[in-house]
Amino acid sequence: MRNAEIKDETLKAFNCSNCGAGLKYKPGEENLTCEYCKTVNSIPQQEIIIEEANFEEYLEKLEAENLVNEKTMHCKSCGAVSTVNVNSRSSSCPYCSNPFTDGDAKMDLVIKPSYLLPFKVDKEKAIQIGLNWIKDVWYTKNTQSSSLTIEAVYTPYWTFDMNTHTDSILKNAFNRSFSSVTTLFYDDVLVSASANISQYLLNQIKPWDIQKLTDTNDEYLNDYTVEKYSIDLKKGFHEAKKMVDQAVKTKITSDAVNKMFHADIIQTQYLNIKFKLIIFPVYIISYDYKGKKNQLYVNGYDGKLASERPRNPIVAVFLKTILVITIIFAALILLLMIASLFALFQTP
């Protein structure tokens, strides 16, 4: 593996059908106008056949053969690592807004994502979606669009397919045991491969339309940050396995209860495991409120939004007041107890 050849790949691009110049993809558009000859070009639409790699074979001998040497930016503040496309203009970390410097750039070996869900919502619409949400409450309604910062990020996911073979022992009310075999198939078990993005917010802008995946094309990556996976393939499968374990257990337990049995021992094998690495489009919008940075996420494909609002200032004052009163009350009780003990010891 260590001596395997490292590939340096260039992705496919959209080219003008008239003059051959490179075309720039814009979210939501189905036609691209050439900046040089003004020819209107249709984005090539082709039927995508989604293929998964064999998990065990990949780990044994194919992983090194599929690594590519790629320029990445390493954030010194939060640790996020982002793959930088040659046309990307990102100059700061999308997660903590820490400015990148020349010293943050490195060459890393990465597994190239096989498929992506392209951005369909443009930045202007994403900012408007975020601004409408921010202005929906009185204490942030004066926020201006100029105070918002926005980063467009492709965030990585592992997806796994697998068959399960589960042996279980069922017991009835008379404590008689019965063996049971359950076989199930799980398709596209999604596991986030990012340790930097907020999983809480990311889960709220799901589901992702996996049926609309397309090949990873260089023009889809123009001006976008592509985060390098920080949860590797093995860890990703471990997380997928935990999700499948719970689903299998729930299925068997539910069936057993319906038949008046209790599932006692459950052991599962995982067979014919397949996987792929895909990336999904996310806008990360940041704004300040009373000196604190707040973030909201917008699904770059369908515009779904997720965020946590800053605390209502009236509620904040109320909670602080309650805290102060509680501290004073506790202090008074403590003083009374000390006074009572002092008086007790002074009694002849």
Low-confidence stretches: 1-12
- Main β-sheet description: 12 strands, mixed
Quaternary structure state of the chains depicted: single chain
- How many structural domains can be distinguished in the coordinates? 2
- The total of helices stands at 5
Q: Give the rounded overall mean pLDDT.
A: 80
Number of strands: 14
Measured distance between first and last alpha carbons:
88 Å
Shape: flat
The portion of residues assigned to helices is: 10-25%
* Rg calculated over all Cα atoms: 27 Å
Strand content: 25-35%
Order of helices and strands: EEEHEEEEHEEHEEHEEEH
Structural class: alpha+beta
Descriptive notes:
This protein has 348 residues and is an alpha+beta fold. The protein has two domains: 31-310, no CATH class; 316-348. The protein has five helices and 14 strands. The chain has helices spanning 55-62, 123-134, 199-204, 233-258, 313-346; strands spanning 31-33, 40-42, 53-54, 67-74, 81-84, 105-111, 115-116, 149-171, 177-192, 214-215, 225-227, 262-289, 292-299, 305-307. Strands 3, 4, 5, 6, 7, 8, 9, 10, 11, 12, 13 and 14 form a twelve-stranded mixed β-sheet that branches. A hairpin with a 2-residue loop joins strand 12 and strand 13 (292-299). It is flat, with a radius of gyration of 27 Å. The model is unreliable at 1-12 (pLDDT under 50).
